[in-house]
Specification:
two-stranded parallel ribbon; alpha/beta; four-stranded mixed beta sheet; 14% strand; 2 domains; 60s Ribosomal Protein L30, Chain: A
């Protein structure tokens, strides 16, 4: 059995990069410990248009201190996400794909441990087809209530028609679609 001197131990650690606590876990969660993650998106999720809507809401969570995104995500998507982080006043950084392992493409993390059991979404919420095809972003009370029940993440993408909108001639985009575009 051979004993290393303290100097040899420090030299070996310096050359090898030292010992990292939960190194594999940090590679999976883009450089953070799992207990600090508030929300994360997978490769296939971050490429969907719905991801931006969800992130717009999630970045305003007071627990979030930083956003980390892999640098292999298309630049246009990364730029939109980083702009959201700027507006929410949270720090952001890109991380090399080679420094990670697994399918996680983005994390929103806290400086401290947080209790969030489910940080990944099983399925991305989607906007129902009739709202996607809506002739305008204005909705009547009935369709706004329907949207709130079916797709609450997308409520901020639409505006409920008020008295003044009616005076200016605004119509519900979904009602117009139902009536084949004929104004009633």
């Amino acid at each position: 059995m051979q004993f290393e001197s303290e100097l040899e131990k420090y030299t070996t650690m310096g050359l090898a990069g030292g010992f990292e606590i939960k190194g594999e876990e940090k590679k999976l969660w883009l450089g953070d410990y799992r207990e600090r993650i508030v929300f994360a998106l997978l490769d296939e999720q971050i490429m969907k248009k719905e991801a931006l809507v969800i992130l717009k809401e999630k970045v305003n969570d007071e627990r979030i201190d930083k956003l980390v995104i892999r640098n292999d995500i298309p630049e246009m998507t990364r730029d939109k996400i980083m702009d959201m982080a700027k507006l929410a006043n949270i720090t952001y950084k890109e991380i090399e794909k080679d420094d990670t392992r697994g399918p996680i493409a983005l994390t929103l993390a806290s400086k401290e441990a947080v209790e969030v059991r489910k940080v990944l979404m099983d399925t991305m919420p989607h906007l129902p087809e009739k709202f996607k095809k809506s002739k305008s972003k204005y909705l009547c009370e009935e369709h706004m209530e329907e949207l709130k029940k079916e797709a609450p993440y997308f409520v901020n993408e639409f505006k409920e028609i008020n008295f003044f909108d009616k005076l200016t001639g605004e119509k519900c985009g979904v009602c117009q679609l139902k009536n084949n575009g004929i104004m009633m």
